Amino acid sequence: MRVIFMVSTIYTEVLLVTSDYSLWAEISSLFNEKDTYFIILEEPRYVAEELVDNEVTRVTNIIAHINPKYVILGNLSSKIEAKIIDRFPSKDTLINIKGREEIEEKLIRSLNLEIRATYYCNPRELALWLLYAKSNNYYLIPDKNEPIKFLNPYLNGSSKRLVWFENNNDIEDIIASNYSFAWDDSLLSIPAFTRQQVDNFNDRIRTIWNSKMIDKDKIDAFDKIRDQINTWICKDIIINDYHHALFVTDDIPYSFVFRNIIPISHMHRNFLWLSLANSYIHAREIYPLIGNAILFSTKNFSIWDEMDVVERQLRKKKYQLQLLYWKNATISKFGEYANVLPYSILHICSHGWNLEGNTIVEKFKDNLWIEHTIEYDEVKVIEKPELLKSADPNDMIDIFVFQSFVKYDWVIWENNLKKEGFMDWIENDKKNIWNDRIILSKRPINYIRYSESVICYDWPNLCSFHSLASDGRPLVFNNSCSSFHTLSYKFSYAGARWYIWTLWNIDEDVAKEVAEDFYQNIENLPVYWAIRKAQKGISKKAQQNIFVYFWTDLDSIFEIPPSEENNYFHELVRSIGRWLQYINDCKENKKPERLIEETQDRLKLLDMSLKSESLTRMIKNHNKYFNNNLYLKLCNKQLN
Prior knowledge:
With about 650 residues, the protein is α/β, with parallel strands linked by helices. It contains 21 helices and 24 strands. It is globular, with a radius of gyration of 25 Å.
């Protein structure tokens, strides 16, 4: 039996913005309409002014799209609170709550909320008891004096899906609980892994695969890793009693751990709130189905290779294909096409590996002039390598710098440092608060952790996209070697609706076999079923479970545009108009340079489309948008 998980109802009367874990749970318990997801947005926590503005804008844009009747500001810092209030045209929609003592007066009474009873629980068990409280219409109050009651797991006898979350006692736990309530899921809490544990686990998988062991020995070694993880997380749960399992995780590939015994998908903990909010906006605003796909590969293919198989499958479905092969698979074209072109599918067939760089130890003084030492790995990548060939010595070349922090004051960089706010200090705000910086040492290293990249024809690409598919929500199938960890975060954060990646170096025949099976079934099965079915059909047993599937959407179905309708050209023109309007609405001294550059990239693609014979019929159907090159001239005039 196949179970399809579709969009649940979203509670749009009230929306909450906070970073207070206990307050988040307490307010969430008041909104318990059955089959309804209560949206919560996380308060920005950055120190640097420009980063605060960017994140506040992100939050207020989501609020504007959802357009709730009331917005609750839950115990925000004065700085963030002032910036959010300043952006609201109507202050009557805001409910400002500084602590739990204000909840009864400002929420329960003023909104006439009905409460069946009040329930108290220890803050360490908030997520599970929140689901219990919402299911029974209880008002949940966190109380550190309450004993631990061990409600784990929370089993819903009628549910078809089991949601597992890594319990970190933070806001992502509360979101997982709200999500499970809306979809009528069972919920299971498992211990959170430290960064060191996650790294060691994934390093062991990669080391085993790259070793010279025979396949049988590799399978045995993989099983030992699985057994170790299972002793850590295993509960009295029979996973195959469910039709689907969803793991909210920081980076553990649970589909590998459980051998895909049932369809297993994953969600990133770090930006769970953002993924679910954007998914709802995308579903609500009914973005058109784009019958367009980008196929990217640095290889020069012959017939019957992977990309040939993918091409044939997608052409059968009447997709228009943008082919970036071999010498056309440059870092510039990859970024340009992936970012600004409207499409539904991005399929990548390339090499993937971690880059080399330097390990740097640096001493600095913070804004209180207290001395600290930090160790980090650093990679520098040229964004436009074609400029290296320029004859003009005055040309400026953009360099992308990636840093992975290792130690802070000689303490290993762990999740607890992130939780205490050090991540905000160091990663995002160092240019504002670091004083008297001195480099103590710098040594080369041939493997930088978290620097996974897609290898282009001319240069590696770290895939730091602002958006994907002209702000669409595409499927990204990264069928490259070791396309996991950082790439998974980056593609998902940029807007990938579904992201499929590999755990280790994949054989070409296996890559072709899985891609063919997957695209054959994508319109008949939910995405997680299609990728599981393709994996189970792998002839080489040691390569089974190599693929991991991340899901950032409320729907499990990938829709295929009708064969007689291709909205690619229409959506390209529409997106240009939308971006131009946004740019024109900005104040003259605050024109967003990045948006102008990306809009100009869209115009280049539109210009290429106008010259493409394959789009002649489509162009004739869209005369209302332009007259020959008049539209392009007007657009460029506005940008300049």
